[in-house]
Amino acid sequence: MFATLLRCEEEEEEGDLKGRIWDGLRKIWRVALPGVISRVCGFGTIVVTQSFIGYISDIDLASYALVQILYVRFLSGLLMGMSSATETLCGQAFGAGQHHMMGIYLQISWIIDSIASTILLPIFIFGTQIFKLLGVEEAITISGRPISLWFIPFVYQLVFSLTIQMYLQAQLKNMVIAWLSIIQFGIHIPLSLLLVYKLNLGVAIA
User: Which of 117, 121, 125, 133 has most Cβ atoms within 10 angstroms of its Cβ?
Assistant: First the structure.
């Protein structure tokens, strides 16, 4: 009798443990999945753009890859790290019921991230000169100038998209960002096909 009761308790504990693990995984993915989708779509946009630029010219492809790796990844990593502070502060404010502070933290993060992006803006403006100092070929440096300048709006877009994502994530509402990322990525592909293959447009000259 005692052995039967003990076995029943063990089965209940095992079932309860599986339930808690499943519940924990469900909660984790509820928070993480929209962020994963957003990152994948953002990275996919860059990869798709790089593929179409490769179709246009090898020189333009090399320039784009250099700008994207040396400048954009550096600045996006910096902004992502700074935006993580927004998630922490907004999460604490949401948990404490101080919802009015979340908007204040979001606006402060916009100001700080915008200042940081503006301070680092010269690396995009003087991208050609930096390439020359690094010993990059002349043709690639010339092609890289318009590409680096056209990345400036993308940098400021990161300021708002990353911080708003953290703001919404603290409230478990970041699925909005995921859907917007999916829509943006879905539009980007046919638009690139239209501009590159149909209209035969290349890289804009600065």
Answer: 117
